[in-house]
Amino acid sequence: MKRKTMITAIATAVMMTTVVPAAFAQTGTPTVAAPAAKSVDAQAAAGNALKAEAAKYGFKSDLSDLQLVSTTNTLGGTIVRYQQTVNGEELFTHQVAVTLDNAGQALLVTSDYVPNLTVETIKTKKLTENEAEAKALADLNVTGGASAMNSRKFGYVVENGKAVPAFKVVSHNGEAEVESFVHAENGKVLKKRDLHQNVNGTGKVFNPNPVRTQGSATGLTDNSNRDSTALTNQLKAVTLQGLDGSGYLRGSYVYIKSKANTFSSTNAFNFTRSSSSFEDVMAYYHIDTVQRYIQTLGFTNVNNRAITVNTNASTQDNSWYSPSTKDLTFGTGGVDDAEDAGIIAHEYGHSIQDNQVPGFGATEEGGAMGEGFGDFMGATYEDAVAPNTAFKALIGEWDATSYSSSNPPTLRRLDTTKKYPTNMDGEVHDDGEIWSHGEYDMAQAFGRDVATKIILQSHFSLTPNSGFANGVAAIKAADQALYGGSHLTQLNSIWAARGL
Predict the structure, then answer these.
(1) What's the pLDDT tens digit per position in 260-280?
(2) Please, which residues have CB within 8 angstroms of residue 224's CB and are 6 or more apart in sequence?
(3) Among the four residues 61, 107, 238, 407, which has the most C-beta atoms within 10 Å?
(4) Which of 90, 113, 136 is the last residue of a domain?
């Protein structure tokens, strides 16, 4: 989500009820293995690496409760991902990822595995899927009953060192999307979280936003979405790549869905900001540009899809990515969020991480990493499009004119003095400033391209429960895989400055 100041009741409940198993503290610490020189089959190599680490992480010797999820080829090697299971069912959010270099040697094991679990059994009667959904909805005070959009799945969650039978229920209610874990026998909601942690033409956009391109916020006001000479002067003509020729803003990487239903028989989309179609063009152009940039770095399997984008779909001053629908939604409170490329790139960052590690951000630290990465994507994108030292380490300057008193206005900064764990306060946007600062410093030290390449590569090595320590270890492993560890000294310094 965009705003660090908007904490809903649901989000607050998440912070209070999310349980990180005590065993994770002993088993989740990442280790970096010294690469060897022998090339082998990826799955076999990953299995051997896990067996070699079995005593450390508590894996079963035959790995019988680790179910293969995926084998992903990347620029720096192969990521083999496993799901921990209990009685053949998923232990929700607990995965293991093995990072192999291009020679098939293990660089990193990232583990959410919980060993020696006691399994709670159902003594009387197991709830049905419909009953579990009803319990989840009642806990959220949602009326109207079941929805075809809601999903339910049986598995297990870790509670107080036990594997507890539960249903994962993802419910949708208007703009809310909540993942609830419901005890499969007594119906108690064990924990929950808000998931709102997707032919060439021409068009006009803010690139990246009018504050950056004018050089200041002077004279730039939202004024209820009206046009002004100052704002119109900041429009830039751009090429809209990859349109499908239908006349709508639909293409290789973006599918705009909006009330405006923007259409042009000539594929010319030239609007000013007073038109609802303007945000459609903004979202299409900037998301398409970010995805094409990612592919220039060599990543053709990172969110390579036509993401559905719902522009002006909420009256909130907020925007979000939905892991269940895989869509983006942008709000219209204050300055319309989709009028600022930094905000657009931030939200697309959430989609990127979910695409690389489905379910990422199951812990508070993971959520903070997600917000921090979104800010990194937004700030470095703005820097690349309109470099100006007055705006270094800032994001969303135009959007922020409706709520920020700083000069220049900003959603958040990527150069605060925050350090881990001293300045952690349990709010993902606040704590995300620790993570974004480290990633932004990487861009200043190595350049945007190298930093982004290392960070994207590192995501493949993470799991849903990964936190800051896992993230730093994965970044170092990614540098080893891509650049032979040539940036390790600087990486150690950068992350040590953040307390990591």
Answers:
(1) 999 999 999 999 999 999 999
(2) none
(3) 107
(4) 113
